[in-house]
Amino acid sequence: MPYPKTNFFHRRSKPQGPRANEKIRALDVQVINSEGKNLGVLPLNKAVSIAKEEGLDLIEISPNANPPVCKIMDMGKYKYDLQKKANLAKKNQKVILLKEIKLRPVTEIHDYNFKIKNAKKFISKGDKVKFTIKFKGREMQHLDIGKNLMNRIIDDTKDIAKVENQPKFEGKQMTMIIQPN
Fold it and tell me: At what angle do helices 109-124 and 143-157 cross, to 10 degrees?
């Protein structure tokens, strides 16, 4: 016997954008016409009929005001303008990444220079860099080598970066984060 279909997991779609025309809940609204002129407080049905006469929609601009502020304009154009603003805001934001560079206390000079060059490249792009020095076995007795290496990194990058998190020792590794000036 098959089970009856139920809507336990039915998702309600969130309303997209502002309320318009008959979906506005207030009885009286402050109306601004398509030229930007304030028409004053009007009953909702009269405001909707004025918008329909112009061939446009009554859109709720400020729903939290008392009474809510509504404007007579084209709904499609309004949604398009909102989308353009959102895309522009997204385009102008900068995402800062955290890049990690791993070293050992016995890292040779050529490898060190190569990693510092990469770190400078990351910093010039605007990213933060986390340096990690891993210690193994007897290297744990020579933590001063790791501290000297961290100080050397700070000296080599001080012209383009500053230290965000000072070098600290956690478990078997030493970490430090630098960021662009």
Answer: 50
Domains of the chain and CATH, by start: 21-75 (3.10.20.80), 98-180 (3.30.110.10)
Which residues have C-beta within 8 Å of that of residue 101, sequence separation ≥ 6? 115, 118, 119, 129, 130, 131, 132
Q: Rounded to 5 degrees, what angle do the CA atoms 162, 167, 170 make?
A: 145
pLDDT at 17: 67
> In 3D, which of 148, 153, 173, 176 has the Cα closest to residue 164?
176
First to last CA, the chain: 70
Other C-beta atoms closer than 10 Å to the C-beta of 30 total: 20
Query: Average pLDDT in the 148-156 region?
Result: 94
